[in-house]
Design goal:
By secondary structure, this protein is α/β, with parallel strands linked by helices. It contains 19 helices and 10 strands. The chain folds into 2 domains: about 325 residues, ABC transporter type 1, transmembrane domain (ABC transporter transmembrane region fold); about 230 residues, Rossmann fold. The longest helix is centred in the middle third of the chain and has 53 residues. It is elongated and about 110 Å long. The protein binds adenosine-5'-triphosphate (ATP). Its main location: membrane.
């Protein structure tokens, strides 16, 4: 349910900011009070200065012109006070909502970075970004609107009701009859707003995903001459979003005339009943006008509160989407009693390891493989056989379904994931580079890398050979995904990152893939520098790179696979000969 979802999301952070929220609420109440007082100076001035009616004895001798000037100044001061209170309340509420939003964005990002790869496989990154930005924005709108409107409007509602009942209980009851009807309509409307907003928010998420995907692949889009088609793809997602947004606007605006109609009905009932009382002499005309005036004052907070219910419905749909991330299970917890790993050196042993990404679709079965301490083992094998998967299991990005992985004779699961990962230098197939400088990208490999260590790692991996050609050398921003570098240069930077890491276990996934012979030769040198005296598992299809290894292991699909092509693996060992 969206309201509980919204409350779950904001109650705890709102506690942290309660002083500021209470302050803006208090200022709003004062503002409403000042607004109610605004007409009084003028009314009294008219009565006392012009009509000379009911003038208090202390003011009887004062010049009427002076009374009028006093009333004018008081009106001006009251208006200034209302504006200042409005400014204070709005600024305080909006600032607090922004702080709350910053906290929410932090929580969503930090949680999503901790979620399992299985979760990420099913969720587009642009979807998460859309939740971080526009959905959090809608929740903030609700927080600010609630702070500024809920308490003053409820107080106003109660206050005016009390006054009305005191003036004429029967007419008050008649005027209030429509309020429950309005409440029923508001509840019904809230459900409709919420479901239209759910559709609109997910269409917005799809739009972010499509736009991000196309922009990220702009090179492919242009190179394949597919700009028109890409614009067409975006156009249909955009049209979808337009349709759902227009439907959501229709749902919300359709409500306004109904609410106004119900309120007018209340006023009409009071007018008829009050008019009859006037004609039979039980109520004065002035009395009826006062009741009708207060009825208008009563309906204004009623209208504001029903509007607030729409804001909540919109924010509730967004809160559901944010909670989807915040309440998703993070990657499996560390085993009970897991401790921080000691310095890991090798050997690394896979014993009877079996694994599949999806249930019933095994990728690895019964893999036995040992990499001795300080040894470099090259994994060879056909595409899709599961070589990269073995590296991911060692990193504990996934856990084996059967068998065990041991490092230094201990099951990996006895240690916390984080402490194991910190002791492995990993160079993935796609050398993901951050949108940061060259030096920052290399330093990413170690929590404690100094500038000197970064430069030294770059020298070992031949990054220094091209660094002087970059406009700001080590401080050159590499652009999104390292766009400023060639494929071979990107791989060398990724290797420098592994070289700067103090880890004694190294995992390299096809570091020379799709490079020409000259670039590959540089990378092979870099690999030598990175793997020297470290326990290394190297995946490659490149015979030249495989020669760096002490031993080659062929990972093959067993012809006796019980479940088709992918099931049981056998490893065949050999030494690469030139
Ligand atoms: N996240 C994933 N979800 C589902 N299946 C996956 C996932 N990643 C890989 N696979 C499948 O697992 C199998 C092994 O993939 P893996 O990347 O380990 O192969 P590989 O031997 O490294 O291949 P290559 O030499 O082409 O890189 C493949 O059939 C692949 O389709």
């Amino acid at each position: 349910m969206s309201t509980s979802s919204l409350l779950r999301l904001v109650v705890e952070p709102a506690r942290t900011h309660r002083r500021a929220l209470v302050a803006s609420c208090g200022l709003s109440v004062l503002q409403v009070g000042a607004e109610l007082a605004r007409p009084w100076p003028l009314a009294l001035a008219v009565d006392w200065a012009i009509e000379r009616d009911g003038i208090p004895p202390v003011l009887a001798g004062v010049d009427p012109a002076l009374l009028l000037v006093g009333a004018g100044v008081t009106t001006l001061l009251t208006s200034v006070l209302v504006s200042l209170l409005d400014l204070g309340a709005t600024r305080s509420a909006e600032r607090t909502a922004e702080r709350l939003g910053a906290g929410l964005r932090h929580d969503v990002l930090s949680r999503s970075l901790r979620l399992s790869l299985r979760w990420h496989a099913g969720t587009r990154s642009a979807e998460v970004v859309s939740r971080l930005t526009s959905d959090v924005g809608r929740v903030l709108d609700a927080v600010a609107a609630t702070t500024l409107s809920l308490v003053p409007d409820v107080l106003m509602l109660v206050g005016v009701t009390v006054v009305l009942v005191a003036l004429d209980p029967w007419l008050a009851l008649l005027g209030l009859l429509v309020v429950p009807l309005l409440a029923v309509l508001a509840v019904h409307q809230r459900r409709r707003v919420r479901s239209s907003q759910v559709a609109a928010r997910s269409a917005a998420g799809r739009l972010s995903t499509t736009a991000t995907d196309l922009l990220r692949n702009v090179v492919a889009v242009q190179a394949f001459g597919r700009v028109d088609r890409a614009v067409g793809d975006f156009g249909s997602t955009n049209a979808d979003l337009l349709r759902t947004n227009v439907a959501a606007v229709d749902v919300e605006t359709r409500w306004t005339p109904y609410a106004d109609l119900v309120l007018a009905l209340g006023a009409a009932l009071v007018l008829v009943a009050g008019g009859l009382q006037v004609t039979n002499g039980s109520l004065s005309t002035g009395g009826l006008l006062v009741v009708l005036g207060y009825l208008r004052d009563l309906y204004s907070p009623v209208r504001a509160l029903t509007r607030l219910s729409g804001v909540w419905a919109r924010a509730g749909a967004s809160a559901d989407r944010i909670n989807d991330v915040l309440e998703a299970e993070p990657e499996g917890p560390d085993a009970a009693g897991a401790v921080v790993a000691p310095a890991l050196l090798g050997p690394v042993e896979f014993r009877g390891v079996g694994f599949g990404y999806e249930p019933g679709r095994p990728v690895l079965a019964d893999v036995d493989l040992t990499i001795e301490r300080g040894e470099t083992v090259c994994l060879f094998g056909p595409s899709g056989v599961g070589k990269s998967t073995l590296l991911l299991l060692l990193l504990r990005l996934w856990d084996p379904e059967t068998g065990t992985i041991l490092v230094d004779g201990t099951d990996l699961r006895r240690w916390t994931r984080q402490s194991v990962r910190e002791q492995i230098a990993y160079v993935p197939q796609d050398p993901w580079l951050l949108d940061a400088t060259l030096a920052q990208n290399v330093a990413f490999g170690s929590r404690t890398a100094t500038r000197a260590q970064v430069v030294e790692a770059c020298a070992r991996t031949h990054v220094d050979e091209f660094v002087d050609r970059l406009p700001l050398a080590y401080d050159t921003p590499l652009g999104e995904g390292g766009l400023r570098l060639s494929g071979g240069q990107r791989r060398r930077v990724a290797l420098a990152r592994a070289a700067v890491s103090p880890a004694r276990l190294v995992l390299l996934d096809e570091p020379t893939a799709s490079l020409d012979a000259a670039s590959a030769a540089h990378v092979i040198d870099a690999v030598r520098a990175t793997t020297a005296r470290r326990t290394t598992l190297l995946v490659t299809h490149d015979p030249a790179l495989a020669r760096v290894a002490d031993r080659i292991v062929h990972l093959t699909q067993s012809s006796t696979a019980p479940l088709g092509a992918v099931a049981r693996h056998e490893t065949r060992e050999g030494v690469m000969t030139s």
